[in-house]
Design a protein that fits this description.
With about 300 residues, the protein is mainly alpha-helical. It has twelve helices and four strands. The chain has one domain (about 1-300). The chain has helices spanning about 15-30, 35-45, 50-75, 80-105, 110-140, 155, 175-190, 195-205, 210-235, 240-265, 265-290, 295-300, and strands at about 1-5, 10-15, 160-165, 170. Helix 3 packs parallel to helix 10. The two termini are about 35 Å apart. Pfam families: TauE. Belongs to the 4-toluene sulfonate uptake permease (TSUP) (TC 2.A.102) family. It is found in: Cell membrane; Membrane.
């Protein structure tokens, strides 16, 4: 069943969009990521213009993340205090990111920038997560070499410390605010919740337990992506509601399924699965940029 998307100005199969929303919702519940790192490139692949894909996907992430976070609230695996600190940085970052997005769109360079950002960030983050996950799996198989929780020197040396009881931490609020700021900028420019950056940052930089990280990440993602969608809709007019509703329906259902799957897997298994998916999407995007270079020129001159 074909449906015309008025803002994107293309016709797409409605069942295909529902299916994509469901897949991304499952990832949201399993890994604590909004799923935008996967959905936005998938929308590129089926012909949705990057500017519309970025703004609309931010809207869909709100719903799938909200559905996922409800399940985590029931299990008490959300650190609300940490989530609020991350949110402060996230809202500031989102406002800055939308301003940058608007400026690049006026120059006609935003489509190319979005795709290049995906290749760079997904490649770096996916590679680091994969290597760290392999090390964690090796340690879990050899209990005699499992290290005690490390104290992260820089994080513990900074001022403005706060207790985060759910996470069992007493650290400065500065690193969480910086992580939130960076994720907010990414949400605006790349149409992602930023979970693929935030989850490893919360585990490896802040030292939070993996099970708490997922629910807390989703909590912060909801508000940052909602704010980002509002800014895009009012400044760039690139939010396609018909597209968003179809992705949203699939995403809400998928998130509930994903949360149940995530509980049954070990933390190390979750991390390595996420890293493999990140690398696979990165490879596909990089190939598209290399194989179809003619698109780079049309994107570059689109604003003139």
């Amino acid at each position: 069943m074909q449906i015309y998307l008025p803002i994107a100005e293309v016709s797409v199969n409605a069942f295909l969009l529902l299916g994509l929303g469901g897949i991304v919702g499952i990832l949201s519940g399993m890994f604590g990521v909004g799923g935008g790192f996967l959905m936005t490139p998938l929308l590129f692949f089926i012909g949705i213009p990057p500017a519309v894909a970025v703004a609309t996907e931010a809207n869909q992430i709100v719903a799938s993340s909200f559905s996922g976070v409800l399940a985590h609230f029931k299990r008490r695996t959300v650190d609300l205090r940490m989530g609020l600190v991350l949110l402060v940085g996230g809202l500031i970052g989102a406002a800055l990111g939308v301003q940058l997005f608007t400026m690049l769109r006026e120059m006609g360079q935003v489509d190319l920038l979005v795709k290049l950002c995906y290749v760079v960030f997904l490649g770096i983050i996916g590679g680091l997560m994969f290597l760290e996950s392999l090390r964690a799996i090796r340690r879990s198989k050899n209990p005699t070499t499992v290290p005690e929780r490390k104290k992260h020197g820089l994080v513990h040396a900074l001022p403005f410390k706060m207790k985060f009881r759910t996470s069992g931490l007493y650290i400065s609020v500065i690193p969480p605010i910086v992580v939130g700021l960076f994720v907010g900028i990414l949400a605006a420019i790349m149409g992602v919740g930023g979970g693929f950056i935030m989850v490893p940052a919360m585990i490896y930089i802040l030292g939070m337990p993996t099970k708490v990280v997922i629910g807390t990440s989703l909590f912060q993602i909801i508000f940052v992506t909602a704010f980002t969608t509002l800014l895009h809709a009012t400044t760039n007019y690139t939010v396609d509601m018909a597209l968003a509703v179809l992705l949203l329906i699939g995403g809400v259902v998928g998130a509930q399924i994903g949360t149940r799957i995530g509980v049954k897997l070990k933390a190390e298994q979750l991390r390595i699965l996420l890293s493999i998916m990140v690398l696979a999407v990165c490879a596909k995007l990089a190939l598209d940029l290399l194989i179809e270079p003619s698109e780079l020129y049309s994107i570059g001159t689109g604003g003139h």
